[in-house]
Amino acid sequence: MALGDEIIIGSSINNTMGITGKSYDILQLLHAAREAEAMGFDAVWVHDALGGRRTTAAYCPIGALTAVAAQTSRIKLCTGILIPQIRNPVHVAQQWATLWEVSEGRAIMGAGTGAGKNTIYKRQFDALATVRGADKDALNPEQFFKRRTALFSECLDVMNRLWTEDKFPYDGQFYKFGPMTLGVARPAEKPPVLVGGGIYIPVGGVGAHHYSWSEELAGKLMMGPKIRRVIAEQGDGWLAVHPTTDEYGDIWSDVQNIAKDAGKGSNSVYGGPSVMGMNWFANCDDDTRTAWEGVQNQLTDFHGPPQGGDKAAPDLVDRWALSGTGKEMADKINRYIELGVTVFQLVIASSDQLGMMRKIAEEVLPHVNRQVPVKAP
């Protein structure tokens, strides 16, 4: 079944350190993945935060998912989100193609430019520019940061072409190489890529999940034209965070128009975006306020408190929370399904990862409408 033709609700399984003061070893991650499949989730998600401080990725997300693939048979294997451009895209394409084959086509790459304070970006691009030789300006982390969206777009282009073409040279702004091929590792069909984009700017000030704030941006969902074009030209869909249903519909319509103008469709090497995804922090509790506070606590711990505060901003929590009773959470999911969203990433907002996963599986999933809306011709 093609991605977008079924509802996929997945739970994040921690491959990070620093969350709620706990660290998760690889055996715990694999156990959580097996449990997620047994509980009835459709997917598992792992994070990527190379070079971060509070959310340092303890294990390679692609390697972790390859191990999960060998111990599961049904669930989709997803990154939410992978930051491919701080790595070599040829190597990432090869690693992902290997995961695709091992999992028999169950992998979904959620990819994005990343988010965080400048210090995190600096570490990430320092890692990319580690080998600089005598000319230290040849690979300048500051330039990578300033042009990160263009770098990300070109990185996806390299990977998409390696997955769909047998052999080709590349002469881009950032990547230049002679004839290259994945050979026998090239998949029979292109693995799907959902591009992450968009971010809500809290009214009260900058938070740890983004690097800028101004009165003009405060209280707005930011989704610039550059990332919209990346989704339209390089993505198979959008993995969104923070939009209301109205905002989602407006942005998605614009992305579709950009894709059409770019000639992305059934006759292109790889078609335009058709899959709508959503990311939430999830906490289920019989008391709605307790569930909401669980999300606030997890967001604060996951990203760090905002400048001058001790808790994640309430308006940001409202945007990022899938919380409440099981029925309340399912009702919210169903509203986005009616819009056309078919892929959901639920980041578990509780220190009791398995316990919260089980509660969501038992009290939320049974109330979800699994009927995919008929797409307009």
Give the rounded overall mean pLDDT.
88
Name the poorly predicted regions. Answer: none
The largest sheet, given as strand count, sense and whether it forms a barrel, is: 8 strands, parallel, barrel
Helix-strand pattern, N to C? EHEHEHEHHHEEEEEHEHEHHEHEH
The end-to-end distance, rounded to whole angstroms, is 19 Å
Strand order of the largest sheet: 1-2-3-4-7-10-11-13
E-strand count: 13
What is the molecular shape?
globular
CATH class category label? Alpha Beta
CATH architecture: Alpha-Beta Barrel
Number of helices: 12
What is the total number of structural domains? 1
Name the assembly state.
Answer: single chain
What would you give as the CATH superfamily? Luciferase-like domain
The secondary-structure class comes to alpha/beta
Indicate the radius of gyration in whole angstroms.
20 Å
* Proportion of residues in helical segments: 25-40%
Could you tell me the strand content as a percent range? Answer: 15-25%
